[in-house]
Amino acid sequence: MAKKPVRKRAAGGSGRSDMRKKLMEAAKTAQKKAYCPYSRYPVGAAVLTDSGRIYTGCNVENASFGLAICAERVAIFKAVSHGDKRIKALCVAAKSAKPCGACRQVIIEFAHKDAEMIYLDWQPLEKKEKITITTAGKLLPHAFDPSEAGL
Ligand SMILES: [Zn+2]
Q1: Phi, psi dihedrals of residue 147, rounded to the nearest 5°
Q2: 29 C-alpha to center of ligand 1: Å?
Q3: Over 90: is that where the pLDDT of 42 sits?
Q4: Is pLDDT at 13 greater than 70 in this prediction?
Q5: Measured between alpha carbons, how far is 8 from 75 in angstroms, rounded to an integer?
Q6: Which residues are catalytic?
Q7: Does 69 map to a domain?
Q8: Per-residue pLDDT averaged across 5-17, rounded?
Q9: Which end of the chain is more exposed for a tag (fewer CB within 10 A), N or C?
Q10: What is the DSSP string of 80-136?
């Protein structure tokens, strides 16, 4: 009985599962750093790049509301500023976690179309979590694609 799961691990099933766990933990940790005194809606994000490195971000608000930035874009811009421009996977952790439209356009700019998008609907006080997994290619139908535009 115990041998079957071990074989699955050898086939690579566990590698993806380990990656998901790592990303989800990193996103949850980043969520704790959120600066959200106005909305009181903390969000954390973690991005895995082609280099194998993980970059994290949290939402950062401002008294001038339009200056706020989402956790996903903080994580992606950190990755890009370190020279990591290709996203293999992204996790966003929050209550009812999903990237907003602006973040979806930024994700499409840097992610592989089959990059895994993990939404971790996470409510720490209630100790509940729901995980939804999709791909970057499904985030924004008819998105502006710079490669199609010849940019
Ligand atoms: Zn956003």
Answers
A1: -70, -35
A2: 18
A3: yes
A4: no
A5: 32
A6: 72
A7: yes
A8: 57
A9: N
A10: HHTT---EEEEEEEETT----HHHHHHHHHHEEEEEEEEEEEEETTTTEEEEEEEEG
| Ligand 1 centroid – CA 120 distance (Å) | 15
Q: Kindly state whether residue 33 falls inside one of the protein's structural domains.
A: yes
d(CA 37, CA 139) in angstroms, rounded, equals 29
Is 130 a domain residue? yes
Q: Which domain, by its residues, includes 33?
A: 14-138
Q: Which amino acid is at 60?
A: V
Residue 30 lies in a domain: yes
C-alpha 70 to ligand 1 mean position (Å) = 4
Place of tokens 């729901």: 130
pTM: 0.87
- Tell me the pLDDT of the chain averaged across its residues: 90
Average pLDDT over residues 55-66: 97
- Residue 104 Cα to ligand 1 middle (Å): 7
The Å distance, Cα 59 to ligand 1 centre, comes to 9
| Total structural domains within the chain | 1
